[in-house]
Design brief:
It is a single chain. The protein is an alpha/beta fold. It has one domain: Aldolase class I (TIM Barrel). The chain contains 14 helices and 8 strands. It is globular.
Length: 326
């Protein structure tokens, strides 16, 4: 993996999911105007794509009950893709009406997880996604399909690579999806597995946008990002402050942290197109909005060269030390 340590200006597209994946599990409702301001700050920071919200039942996810208002009222920066997660036809209609640039559809590579999470078999989920895809195509809206548990299922264990690629074949071939996201839903991925799956996907569908969505559940988030880059990946989901999580991994940390990934990649010479200082400023807003601290180590410790001032007694200490040498 020698090549990953020197990015040499290679472009990596950072895609923010914190305002959907992160906020959806928070008990505190973030006011609508604060959500809009947060998305606007992320747009100004230079993220390639922002998954703004989800058009789901307000009863199921009350934290995102203001989806229409948020998506309609954000300031749209040129070149930024504003995406929304939609679970069904009604959600797709709402998202299209609110001017989503892209619909993100979700199903699982694991039959057990799909039944537990979506209350459908994988076949039923694919049929539902096909209906949504037809609506999106007629409206001229792009579709991305996120495949949960692509690197392992917390119920079944390992998911065969052939199973993952088989569903990707249907997403690309039958649905004509512009992009596919391979999701490490509960943080089961490891670098060797990631590299192999990315290479296999890239070999089959070089023209399809491939996104990797990692969680830091077991502390391997950054290692998996680097393995994916080495295998040819260029697009990554990440969550501001490291927010997020999954009910099947209780107590675990959330998604890989946006500012931590950008910080690391910039030090390695990659071009993320992101203003890291602006991203950190946006992350610092979160504790006041959600009522608790976030996992972000960059917010806690600062960037590598965010230096500290000298102690107040430094000069006196130096003089005493020099005096001992006389």
């Amino acid at each position: 993996m020698k090549g990953i340590w020197h990015g040499a200006g290679r472009r990596i597209h950072m895609q923010e999911v914190g305002t959907r994946d992160g906020l959806q599990i928070e008990e505190t409702f973030v006011p609508t105007d604060e959500k809009i301001a947060l998305v606007n700050a992320l747009s100004r920071a230079g993220l390639a794509k922002i998954e703004v919200t989800a058009f789901v039942s307000p009863k199921a996810i009350p934290a995102l009950r203001d989806a229409e208002v948020v998506l309609r009222e954000i300031e749209r920066a040129p070149g930024v893709v504003y995406s929304a997660l939609v679970p069904n036809v009604r959600g797709a209609e709402r998202a299209i009406d609110a001017r989503a640039d892209e619909l993100n559809l979700v199903m699982s590579a694991s039959e057990s997880h799909n039944l537990a999470n979506l209350r459908m078999t994988r076949g039923q989920s694919f049929a539902a996604l096909s209906e949504v895809n037809a609506i999106a195509r007629s409206a001229g809206v792009a579709v991305n399909v996120s495949l949960s548990c692509a690197f392992g299922c917390p119920i079944e264990g390992d998911v065969p690579e052939a199973t993952v690629l088989g569903w990707c074949e249907r997403f690309v071939g039958e649905l004509g999806a512009r992009g596919v996201t391979l999701c490490d839903t509960t943080g089961m991925a490891y670098p060797g597995q990631v590299a192999a799956l990315v290479r296999a996907f890239r070999a089959r569908w070089p023209a399809t946008e491939l996104t990797l969505h990692f969680h830091n559940t077991r502390g391997m988030g950054l290692a998996n990002v680097l393995a994916a880059i080495d295998a040819g990946a260029e697009r990554f989901d990440a969550s501001l402050g490291g927010l997020g999580g999954c009910p099947y991994a209780p107590g675990a940390s959330g998604n890989v942290c946006s500012e931590e990934i950008v910080h690391a990649l910039e030090l390695m010479g990659y071009d993320t197109g992101v203003d890291l200082a602006a991203l950190i400023d946006a992350s610092r807003r979160l504790p006041a909005l959600i009522g608790h601290d976030t996992p972000s180590q960059i917010v806690k410790a600062g960037r590598r060269l965010d230096l500290h001032p000298l102690p107040a007694d430094f000069e006196a200490t130096r003089e005493r030390a020099l005096a001992r040498d006389q």
